[in-house]
Amino acid sequence: MKIANVVMAAIGVTGALLTGMVSCQSVAEEKAPPAKTAPEEEFVFVDTTAIPEGKYGDAVRYGRELMLNTAYYIGPEGKNGKYLGNKMNCTNCHQDAGTKPFSFNLIATHSNYPQYRAREGKVLTLAERVNNCVMRPHNGKPLPLDGREMAAFLSYFRWINSFAPKGHFAGEKSLSVELPDVAADPKKGDALYASHCARCHGNNGEGQMRFDNVTYTYPPLWGSSAYQPGSSMHRVIMQAKWLKANMPFDKATHDKPFLTDQEALDIAAFVNNDEIHTRPGVTKYDYPNKEEKAIDYDKAPFADTFSVAQHKFGPFKPIIEDWKQKGLKPSY
């Protein structure tokens, strides 16, 4: 991929934490830098040394800290509140505090909300979307909308959004995977997991707890401390896209993936195989309109006659073709 006019990044030193509540008015008073135009192939990197001084800057720094050390601040033993149901951090999925390309990148998030979300069947604010992550992957309870932590998250997202060009940029979305004519194979994924993933995430998907027992060095992938069903990572295609660009962390890059598309799908199928792996319980599932449901979301009812297993593992091409013939827009 040709990369034009790369915006260079510098990793900033984490500054002082937010010392008081940041009101919506104080955030609004800060003027974001003007948007920059750039060709679509440009990669955007965030210069954390440019975080401003003052109360707004303190909020941005705290928001970044929350992304990197979520469990420390608001986990089950959180210093500033106990909101999470597990000890994972936002940056486990949104790597580099949401700024790494092809890793559920969050740089454009602030300008993309409010937006309609098919999963909830309604328009969500960015604050509501933050709480979705707190409640699903983190298995927690929602943050107060007028609280210090929510103000910090929103301030951070607004600030990193100031680096985004007009239009799209490289790494904003996930890498694509070519869907095969066969289903993803959890048994093959089991062997691949043992070879490439277990050294960090454990033979039983338990992860590796950090020395202080506050959070994980490598997060759990299933079990009572992992993400819920309904989380984005619980969908096989969605997780495979993320794996292709990012894992193994010391071998893969977005331009030189270590896993093939099929291997990424097989590992995702194994990790998300609910017949052998338990997860935190969920009493309510999503997508109230079945015609808007992601094709790799495996909870009925469906807008087609394909089985739960095929929606879970594939093959996905027949589902996609069926939806297109019906005039529906398949998402995955």
From TrEMBL:
Q: Which Gene3D superfamilies match?
A: Cytochrome c-like domain
- A single GO molecular function, which one? electron transfer activity
Tell me what this protein is called: Cytochrome C class I
Source organism: Flavihumibacter solisilvae
One Pfam family this chain carries? Answer: Cytochrom_C
* PROSITE patterns on file: CYTC (PS51007), PROKAR_LIPOPROTEIN (PS51257)
Per UniProt, the keywords (alphabetical) are: Heme, Iron, Metal-binding, Signal
InterPro entries per record: Cyt_c-like_dom, Cyt_c-like_dom_sf, Cytochrome_c-type_DH
Q: Which domain of life is it from?
A: Bacteria
Signal peptide coordinates = 1-28
Residue ranges of domain Cytochrome c in the record: 184-275
